[in-house]
């Protein structure tokens, strides 16, 4: 049997990123136009096409038994009256839980079940948020500085963004 070798990754608190960086995914407004309600504000803001959020994913196999971990940064700002937020997702493996540890900033963790039960948790420095299986989730930066959090989830969980793009939240 071939074993994946143990690794250390470190959080660079000055630059707010993982070392080694792993995969860096950047979401600009152009990647998220369906996430916001105010189409006029979107058209105007698209001229600048700001980065809404980015995340650093450690290179861990996306296989059963492994734990993915990442750092996400949601920047401060608004599109019309709506705060910057992540796209939101269900996990492809629906019975997957996730943990978020807020490192910096203020935000909201918005969650919803397939049958429309909703829950919103406060995110602030030091808060540890548990996202149970079967709950879609998205984070919203409600502060004036970046919202930065560390996430851990099962390696083969996958992400289903498409269902969120087609469904109205709350």
Short note summarizing the structure:
The chain is mainly beta. Helices cover 7% and strands 41% of the residues. The chain has a 6-stranded antiparallel sheet with strand order 3-4-5-13-8-11, with no helix packed on it. A 3-stranded antiparallel sheet has the order 10-9-12, with no helix packed on it.
Please describe what this structure looks like.
This protein is mainly β and 170 residues long. The protein has a single domain (11-166), classed as Sandwich (Jelly Rolls), CATH 2.60.120. The chain has helices at 39-45, 162-166; strands at 10-12, 17-19, 23-28, 51-57, 67-74, 78-79, 82-83, 98-104, 106-112, 118-124, 128-131, 136-141, 147-154. It has a 6-stranded antiparallel beta sheet, with no helix packed on it. A 3-stranded antiparallel beta sheet has the order 10-9-12, with no helix packed on it. Strands 1-2 form a two-stranded antiparallel ribbon. The radius of gyration is 16 Å and the shape is globular.
Gap from first CA to last CA: 47 Å
**Total separate domains:** 1
Assigned CATH superfamily: Jelly Rolls
Report strand order across the widest sheet. Answer: 3-4-5-13-8-11
Put simply, the count of helices is 2
What's the overall geometry?
globular
Order of helices and strands: EEEHEEEEEEEEEEH
Based on secondary structure, the structural category is mainly beta
């Amino acid at each position: 049997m071939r074993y994946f070798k143990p690794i250390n990754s470190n959080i660079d608190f000055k630059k707010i990123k993982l070392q080694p960086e792993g995969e860096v995914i950047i979401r600009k407004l152009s990647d998220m136009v369906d996430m916001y309600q105010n189409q006029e504000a979107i058209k105007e803001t698209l001229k600048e096409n700001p980065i809404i959020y980015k995340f650093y994913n450690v290179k861990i196999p996306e296989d059963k038994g492994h734990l993915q971990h990442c750092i996400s940064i949601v920047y401060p700002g608004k599109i019309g009256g709506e705060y910057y937020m992540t796209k939101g997702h269900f996990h492809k493996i629906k019975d997957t839980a996730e943990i978020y540890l807020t490192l910096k900033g203020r935000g909201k963790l918005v969650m919803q079940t397939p049958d429309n039960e909703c829950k919103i948790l406060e995110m602030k420095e030091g808060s540890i948020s548990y996202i149970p299986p079967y709950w879609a989730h998205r984070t919203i930066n409600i502060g004036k500085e970046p919202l930065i959090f560390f996430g851990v989830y099962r390696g083969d969980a996958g992400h289903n963004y498409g269902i969120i793009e087609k469904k109205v939240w709350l």
